[in-house]
Amino acid sequence: MDIKFFLKKQEEFDNQFEFLKHWNEKISENNLDVLNFLLLSASGEIGEASNIAKKIIRGDFTLKEKKSDLNEEITDAFIYIIKLINQLDIDIEKEYTLKMQKNAIKFGARKDE
Prior knowledge:
Layout: H1 3-15, H2 32-57, H3 63-87, H4 92-106
């Protein structure tokens, strides 16, 4: 599986719910509330994952006990990121490659000689 698989699967899923306001509409200057909603939703899911991690770190639970819950929250965040990629029409493979090149320079990646 590659990223295009996930993008397509999410788009197919979202198309089933067109009756939900803004569920799968492309984001433009005219509907920035959709961008805001998706970003807040992704952030919320990361917050839920962070809360679980906090409880593991302070000893309320072991990682093993909460791994499934942690997996679910991170997957929820991933779904919202996929929705953002789709709805903003981001060429994520291109953007990822460009960002990795910038990061290599920023962090001084070693070149194999």
